[in-house]
Amino acid sequence: MLFNLIFLPVVGIYGTRILPANMTGVPPAPYGATAAAAGEGEYENADEHLKYSGDWREEQISAETIGTKSDRVYLAAGEPGSRLEFTYHGQKIELIHSVGPDHGI
Question: Which residue range forms the structural domain that includes residue 24?
């Protein structure tokens, strides 16, 4: 029992320093941007990597409403079939959006 309490954590810590990252579960380096794709990070709606087609309108939301330090500008599609294209270099994506009875068609 004492062996497990002392030796196993020491082996685990030492292992993360000498074994390759793909064996130890250490997070990989952030994905970088390429000439054709955005890298890991946060992107505002006016970023050059975001390509809009169709009818989009800006809606400014007050900082008080969304609980932030400054106002934010959001975009809303004004017609069915409006599209947003975002080419990225990574493994996952998280979109921040709102839903409600007065959203969408």
Answer: 1-29
Dig out the tokens for 22 from the structure.
């793909």
Torsion sign over Cα 74, 37, 33, 29: positive
Residue 38: count other Cβ atoms within 10 Å of its Cβ.
20
CA 26, CA 18: separation in Å to the nearest integer?
12
* pLDDT 10s digits, 42-92: 888 889 999 999 999 998 989 999 888 999 888 888 888 899 999 999 888
- The reply to whether 94 and 84 lie within a common domain is yes
User: Do 39 and 54 share a domain, yes or no?
Assistant: yes
Handedness of CA 59, 61, 66, 69 (dihedral sign): positive
Indicate yes or no: pTM above 0.70.
no
Same domain, residue pair 25 and 35: no
Distances in whole angstroms, Cα of residue 79 to Cα of each of 27, 44, 73, 96, 97: 41, 22, 19, 20, 17
